[in-house]
Structures are given as structure tokens and as C-alpha cells.
């Protein structure tokens, strides 16, 4: 089995376990912050503004953190960066608990922007460990995408449970413990850490051939995800089922997780650019299902089924996109290149949240489902217009068969 073959490599299980623990909080922190701040200050507007500020700060800081990781090594940078982010989360809890002025909430949450891109660091380890074996790297990327989806399935549910059943700050505190423990365990696995090449600065990933249009597509893809989340929350709230919105969104993540694991068992054929266009085309087509379910039935149950199916296009699209990022990122800048892609997604999520929220409020939640379809269509047009086969910056040897 391909996945069993992956974890036969020495050290793979250990760094994956640490990374999984560290990544789970990425689906917890935003939900925990909103519940905690809205409960204490009775303002969802303030809670949303604080989390949006943290997202914007992350988009600015994350590429610089990733550049330091490439230059000085994962362990030397990730651990102190994580501790700074943990202090920011703890400061947020204290500010909320003590009734500090609103501006302190923004400052504290902005400090969490130093959180390292643990998913990118894990993918960099696989790229080093598999030494360019394209087939095995495809399987590893699919596994990593499935882990992302798993975290976004479990994280929000766990955060909501802790904040509601224990105390409002419990979700944030648990996230801090998991993040720090996971990064420490991950960083301790030095045998699988990619070597640092201090003399290899290379061209910035932003200026590498083929990267700008790829990052623009990431921005459009993020718009899909941001709009889908907000519109689904509005759709469920309008029908008096706000509590069920998380479960409905979890179905979308579940579909993506299952498709990602299946996609990892397949052997990719043809240029990655062609596969990427096909994946985005499939995603655009499947995103019409939630729009049809919402407009024709108005049923949250039917919508959940539509989201489950629509989510199956997400992981293959993201896996192929990350493969392109890895191919086009200059040697020695892999963490930075993948973090730039994540930054593009974050920027798109912010735009999609705003656009989806405006559409749901001024038109209807049902009409809001047209926003993800339009964003995916824009990503497809951009892909067809700009993405052409580019010689890989990172050398890719012949594919070795997996046993």
C-alpha cells in the first residue's frame, strides 16, 4: 500500500505524529477566539474584526517566518516562533478575562501571526526524505492534504465543545498546549529535518517562473473556501439551525479528506498543469451542487449531502497545486514557497468571507452560494489563460514504483 510504504521510512511516523498534534489547533483558534470574545464582550463584530486582524497579520508575517526556516533550519526557528505565538494567545485570554481595552485584543491576536506553517514544514520533510521520487511525493502530498482536512473537521468541533462545556477560554488554552507540544515533538526529530543551505539564497519564489499566476489562482481558491464557510453559516442560521452549521461544513471537509486519501493511491499522469486545470474544472462543476440544493430544496440535510460531494474536488485540486508550487520553488526556499501559497489562500479566504457575507446579508444566503461558483470559475479561467508547463526549478528524477 502506498501509505504504508511512506511510513516505512525511518523517522516518518515520529515527525508526522508531532506535526498532526501541532496542526490540530489551526482549526481551533479562530472558533475559540470568536466564542470567547463574543461571549465576554457581547459583540460578534468585535470578535470577527479581531480574528480578521490576526489573519491579515499572518499573511504578512508567515512568509518571513518561512524564509527564516529555510535559512536557519526548522527547529531553530519554529520553536521560538511558536512560543511567541503561544504568548500571544495567552495574552488574548488574559485581556478578555480581565476586561482590557479592545485594542489589546487586536495586539494580542496579531502576535499569533508568528505561528510557523507546520504543514509546509512537513511537506518539506517529505520532499527531502523521498528525494524527488515524484510518485511517492504525490502520495505524501495527498496524505498531508487529508491531514489538513481532518484538522478542519475535528478542530472547530473540539473548540466549540471545550468553550461551551468547560469554560470560554478552554478552547484557546487547549490549542496552545497542543501547538507547543506538537512543534516541540516535531522539531525534536532532527534526522528527517531538511539540511540548511546557507550559501543558497536563490531567486525569491515570488519571482520564480510560473509562480505569480499560480499564487493568483491560490487567491481565487481561497475565495471559494471563505465564501462557502460564511454563506453556510448564514444559511443554517436563517433556518434556526446555527448549531448544525459546523457539522454541515464538516461534511465538506470529510468529502475532501476521503478524496485526498484515494487520490494519493493513484499515479498522476500528464503535466501537472493539465491535471490542475482538470481538477479546478471538476471543482467548479461540483460547486454548483450546493447552489442547486439551497435554491431548489432549502433543506439543510440536502445541502449537507451536496457539500459532501462538492468537497471531494478540494483535496485533488490542492494536492496538484502544491505539487506545482514544489516544482517551481527555487532550491533552498521550499518552506517560503509553500507558505506564500498558503498566504494566497488566506488572503482569498478573507476576501471570500467578506463577499459571501455581503451577498448573504444584502441578497440571500441562497444567492451567496453563487460566490464560490464564480470564484472557482475565475480560478479556472486564470489557470487556462496563464498556467503553462514550466521546467521544474527543483530537479525531479524518474518516478520509482511504490511497493
UniProtKB/TrEMBL annotation:
This is Major facilitator superfamily. PANTHER family: MAJOR FACILITATOR SUPERFAMILY (MFS) PROFILE DOMAIN-CONTAINING PROTEIN, PTHR23542. The chain crosses the membrane at residues 20-38, 45-65, 77-96, 173-192, 213-236, 242-264, 276-294, 300-325, 337-360, 366-387. One of its GO terms (molecular function) is transmembrane transporter activity. It comes from Streptomyces glaucescens. Pfam families: MFS_1. The keyword Protein biosynthesis does not apply. Keywords: Membrane, Transmembrane, Transmembrane helix. It comes from the Bacteria. InterPro entries: MFS, MFS_trans_sf. The keyword Manganese does not apply.
